[in-house]
Amino acid sequence: MTTSFDFDTEEPLTSTGRPLTNATITVRVIKSFPYRNVKNLILQNYDLRSKTPKDLLLDCQQRISTEGAFRPFRSVQFDSLKVYTHAHGFKTINLVINFDHDEDWILDINDNEKKLYQYGIANETEISLFKWEDYVNFKANPEEKW
Predict the structure, then answer these.
(1) Per residue in 49-104, pLDDT tens?
(2) Read out DSSP for the chain?
(3) pTM of the model
């Protein structure tokens, strides 16, 4: 009898060594694109099979509003999520956000049916959390100030 799992115990990679119901993901909270103000929020034991992008946004907003380390980030109205990099994937040369894949790596926070794993998110995926208007403005003129 063969049993199908969503993780690999024989030859595990970090992305497949844990079940989708117990993943660790990094959310890159972006306060300012030009000044590269980014702080990582680590979510452990996160259930990618039952959580939607809206759930992820709300969970991040709750942590930002309660953890002292994120006090400077509370002035930003975060409204968008985008995959920065998948585990074992290529990283972008931009240190703030991945400009590629706008059509398929932006998570739809209004879709309450599609779960995070259906976006290709697995253990060790990095996701950017940001304000959409700031992203559009920075992408049009990616000038860094520091």
Answers:
(1) 999 999 999 999 999 999 999 999 999 999 999 999 877 666 666 678 888 778 88
(2) -----SS-SSS--TTTSS-GGGEEEEEEEEEETTTTEEEEEEEEEE-TTT--HHHHHHHHHHHHHH-GGGGGGTTS---EEEEEE-TTSPPPS-SS---S-TTTSEE-TT-SSS-GGGGT--TT-EEEEE-HHHHHHHHHS-----
(3) 0.84
pLDDT in tens, 99-138: 877 888 899 999 999 999 999 999 999 999 999 999 999 9
Of 3.40.710.10, 3.10.20.90, 3.40.50.10240, 3.40.50.300, the CATH number of 20-140 is: 3.10.20.90
Buried b (16+ CB within 10 A) or exposed e, 109-124: beeeeebbbebebbbb
Give the chain's length: 146
Domain ranges of the chain: 20-140
* Residue 110 neighbours by CB under 8 Å, 6+ apart: 54
